[in-house]
Amino acid sequence: MTTDGVGAIPYDRRMLTARQLNRTAVARQHLDMRVDVPLDEMVQRVFVMQSQEPASPYVAMANRISGFDPLVMDAMWQSGELIKSTQLRVTLHGVHQLDYPAVQQMMERRLRSRMNEKRFRAAGYTPETVEAVLPPLLEYLEEPRSVPEIKAFLSAELGEPAENELWWIIKSFAPVRHATSDAPWSFGPRLSFVAAPVGSNPPDPDDALAACFLRYLRAFGPASRADFGQFTLLTQAMIKPMVEQLGDQLVEYEDPDGNVLYDVADGEIVDDIELRPRLMAMWDSVLLAYADRSRIIPEEIRKTVIRTNGDVLPTLLVDGHVAGVWQVVDGVVEAKALTPISEAKWELLADEVAALQPLFDRDPNLYSRYHRWWPRIDGLDSRVLV
Questions:
Q1: How far apart are CA 212 and CA 225, in angstroms?
Q2: What is the DSSP string of 2-58?
Q3: Which one, of 192, 190, 225, lies nearest residue 209 by Cα?
Q4: Are 58 and 82 in contact, with CB atoms under 8 Å apart?
Q5: pLDDT tens across 21-75, in order?
Q6: How would DSSP label each residue in 177-246?
Q7: In the prediction, which pLDDT does 123 show?
């Protein structure tokens, strides 16, 4: 017998094996088999797309949707049906417009606390400064504005030059999104921003937190409170009472180490599924969805895949676990195995190049700014995937 993790009466829980947790995560993220569903539906199924690199949402969806058309994603970014903004972990994510109000409200309360950070205070700003300039700024951002234009506007509002820290703090929590450009992946290096829709009646922050936790579990569960905290950067002081209040809407399991895991009541646990390899996007969300990354990334190669500066390299997913890394140079995909990969799996990885070829046609040197890592990685085997 174990306790439920929140101080209630002990009772028995089903223990899930490491294999079940891995297979369930892969299945819920639709990385077992591509499916023929509309892009908007898939984006909502996976909940959030890590978008620090503009190409990554495209690679992520090409790994999940059969016949993925990047032009459809272009159009959805441009129309605002997909929204790219600073969200979970204070990094860039893409979400469907229907999910954005809850995600934004969930994160705003946490990210507003950054106004207590030394960097912001040292620049001479207070929360009152932000509250004064935010309403007119959001009105100004009804049209896309460049960063220099935004800083000039803030300077005019303040009556003095606006320091970088003011826009830095506002864009981390306020309802603003990245405006699209004509770059191959809809967002280029010259950033511009526009107000993001939260509606006339945005959700209550507590309701938003609960709704997002349920969405997270449906996309990544079963998972612990620590997992959700790691994935979002929310504090346990915020998460614990929310989990308690959800009560019967959740079911509980244990992982092999005895940690309490939560899931949606109708969440399916997968014991075994057929898996094909994938060439995963940089920072694919499933790699970062858990406090214990070993659910997907073997511990012995974690520091190779997740660099000390936070870069999460493009990876080879084989049998549900990261097994290597890849890069594309002049349209040619090179791969390095970090754990043993069979000849049969190498052949399937080569087949995956065809599935991603429309993306490589767009950018034959995808992720080239990160190619510096390649010579520093010692692989067990290196292949050109053709």
A1: 13
A2: B--SSS---B--EEPPHHHHHHHHHHHTT-SS-B---HHHHHHHH--EE-SSTTHHH
A3: 225
A4: no
A5: 999 999 999 999 999 999 999 999 999 999 999 999 999 999 999 999 999 999 9
A6: EEPP-SSTTS--SS-EEEEPP--SSPPPHHHHHHHHHHHHHHHH-SB-HHHHHHHH---HHHHHHHHHHH
A7: 83
Joined tokens for residue 208 = 């938003």
pTM: 0.93
Q: Output the six-digit token pair for 250.
A: 């959740």
What count of other Cβ atoms lies within 10 Å of the Cβ of residue 135? 9
* Contacts with 65 (C-beta within 8 Å, 6 or more apart), sequence order: 34, 35, 36, 37, 39, 42
Per domain, the residue ranges of the chain are: 1-273+285-292, 297-385
Supply 19's token pair.
Answer: 């294999």
Closest residue by Cα to residue 31 from 277, 231, 288: 277
Q: Dump pLDDT digits (tens) for 302-334.
A: 999 999 898 999 999 999 999 999 999 999 999
Question: Which tokens in the block code for residue 52?
Answer: 């620090």
